[in-house]
Amino acid sequence: MLKISKLVIGILSLFISSRIEAQSLFISPSKAEPSTQLVVTISGSGVRFGQGSSCVQPQCIDLGTNLIFNSGSSTISVPYSSLTFLADTMAQAVLTVPSLGYYYLQTSTGYGFSNQFLVETAPKPVPSISLSPSSGQSGTNLTVTVTGTNTYFGSGSSCLSDPNCTDLGTAFYFNQGSGTSSSLPFTSLNILDQNHAQVGFDLPVYSGYYQLSTASGLQVSNQLYVTPKQQPTVYISPGSGLENTTLSVTITGNGTSFGQGSSCLYPDCIDLGSTLYFQAGSSSVSSVPLETLYFRNDTSAIATATITLPGAGNYSIRTSNGFFFANQFSVYTKPSPALYITPSNGEVNSLLTVTVSGVNTFIGTGAACSGNPNCTDIGDAFHYNQGSSTLSLPFTSILVTDSGQAVVSFYAPAQSGYYQLFTSNGTIISNGLNVTPKPLPTITISPSIGLENSLLKVTITGNGAIFGQGSSCLSNPNCIDLGSSLYFNSGSSTISAALTSVNYVDNQHVTANLSLPYSGYYTVKTFNGNNATDYFIVNPKPRPSLSISPNTGIEGTTLKVTITGDNIVFGKGNKCMLPECMDLGTELSFFGQASPSTSGTFPLSNVKITDKSHAVISIKLPAAGAYTLRTSNGVYISNYLFVTPKPKPSFFISPSEGITGNTLSVTITGSNVKLGKGNACNADPACTNIGTGFSYFSQGSSTVYGTIPFSSVRIIDAQHVNVTIKLPSPGVFALKLDNGLSSDNYLSVLPKPAPTFTFTPNSVVEGQKIAVTITGSNTKFGVGTKCSSDPLCTDLGDVFYFVRQGSPTTSGSIPFIYSSVISETEAKVTFIAPSVGEYNVSLVNNIRSTTPLIVSKNTVISPLVLGIDDTEMSGKNINVYPNPTQGILNVGNRSSVLYNSVGEIVMVSDKEVLDITNMQSGLYMLKLTDNKGSVSRITIRKE
Fold it and tell me: Under CATH, which number does the domain 860-942 receive?
């Protein structure tokens, strides 16, 4: 124990010394100007701050009352004007900065700082000025904004005594070669604020870069760039038009202004005069007067005018005083006018109303169009040539619209064909007139589809015609006489279809009954050749068919079915004389689909016809199989009759699983069977007697193992019986009742589970007297003779038998000091814990425990306090075990931090058990914190 204490003290000394060596101080900021009042922050690492008597602890640094500035050759003591502690490791001080130098610092109590302090004088900022904008065109006046940096603007005597003031004076100056200085006098000067002024001045006549300065010699930081003076240009817009037309144009100047006569005497003015001159190459010049010339008041370089364009060509334009325009002018040939009519077709002799539209022309008539070269007079008729003659189509009406179009009406020629029309003044209608023949009248039949050899009521409608009969229809070419038949043409033959019950609804609609021919695809005509517009479809008459529902049943039972007829009508006897009618007769024939086939007849009784296509009959079903059915008059039923076998009776049990030797209450559920017992069941042929027990067989075998008698039987209903049985030896068994009825499911008999026990607590200390609670599973506890007669009883005995784990293993027993049975599944025993180790234990009859007994050494160490107030843990012991340990360490309900021998943290945990198996052997320091916040440190040995 003494050796361990010395080792702990050594570790603590090493830990504390490493903490002190890690102390450091810093000052921020660490640079300032001399003689200035400065607020600094002092921070520490691995320490805490104090002053005077408040700083007696070993890890506390006394900041004292002043700082020592050491330049290497001298020291200066600088007192704190004030000192404020912001936190344990941070303080704020106010002090006066000493003279220029580079200093090491320490407190008046002797603690040195990790960083040094620099005292220096900040450089004085250099004043400068800049111009914006810094460029302009030579010979023009430029207004700029002057911006001062590290200076401010003033003027006169008020600025002489202030070194930070800049007097801009009355001009900017620049050198003009060979030391000659030139000035740019200000035309305006306005000081906006201390750092901004607005100055106007005339730019030099020569382009280039100029370095400017003020009268006091302060240079402008950015150079002045003077660009060459721009040559004036003049443009005309638009730059194109049609020959001999009047056009409104805009004339725009750049770098100039416009005027006329005496108003345009200054040098930058261009006199537009009263005429422009258009010149195409070397050809003669066309003079174009400027009409309605107007100078815009808001600008000196924009004018508008109206001009009449010369003939087609590309022209250069100049003013009367010889100034050429920058862009050329294109004059295009005027396109020929063209006329179109919409619509441009119609039937012979029909009255047409068309819209006449013009391209490159307007449309008019008479005086409204005369004198206007852009107007086309369409006159009072269209004309066309027929051989050597010119014929006219006089207008019955004419209307000229505001949009330059005309709407005219006229009668089409009597002959079909294409006509090239033109107006009275010879202007051609570009798209001409297409005259079509008048169509022959047609008929429409509705409906236009039906069944062969049937009578169909139809409506016949005339298209471009009227209906009549006989002589009343001969004198009218648009009249159609339907006659007594229509003619159906299939392509290979023509069939006459009679019309009966003909009714003339009006002169364009007729109803009639039409006798349809055999099936096919037909065109239809009247007897005098008028076509029907649509094809007529005659479909084949569908074959009659029968079906039954339901079409499934169980053999030997009587089944009520409904027979449904499609394209057929049911009837009986004399009431069923029509060809569409079917008499079901007195029987149905059936033919089996299996081989060899079975056939026979079903007598029909109680046949009930519910409507014209449904009848209800009853039949007794034959042996199982699929059958085709046929009526007595030879019509087959379209769907099969499926007869299923009578289902075999069976039963199943629930529950179907239990443990051998146990009593089990089972419900027997019958399937396709009626269950009962006694004489009442024996007298009922449909009843199956439940009997007295089960015969049971091994799964997949027919060998009877034995019987399982019913200890009780209770009939619930005809399909459910409850019985009580005692389960046989383990296995999976098929069951039968006394009458041979088999079960659909199996009975699973499980082996009895082995008895085991657990005990708590199972972790104890070597030599400790310990009381544990034993809990049994699949057993019940007893003692001595009270337990010998019960096979399920476990005798506690008076010892634990054990096998100790390790190498080599050992065995033995642990005697009970005290034992008591609390209940069938719970007992208490008291014993003395054996030596350190892990034990597998069992009771006297070899009933094993599923939990091991873990025995460890008891390590009781008083708390070791390291600069921490542990008043709540004072006088208490901490039980941490096993110690030494090979890996597992029980620490109880505490948070823990584990350090190695050099003070490094190697594990942090809030669990009750630590696993340090993978750590190196040696000594470790364990810091524990309980739920009240108390802290202790314990030395742990890892083996």
Answer: 2.60.40.10
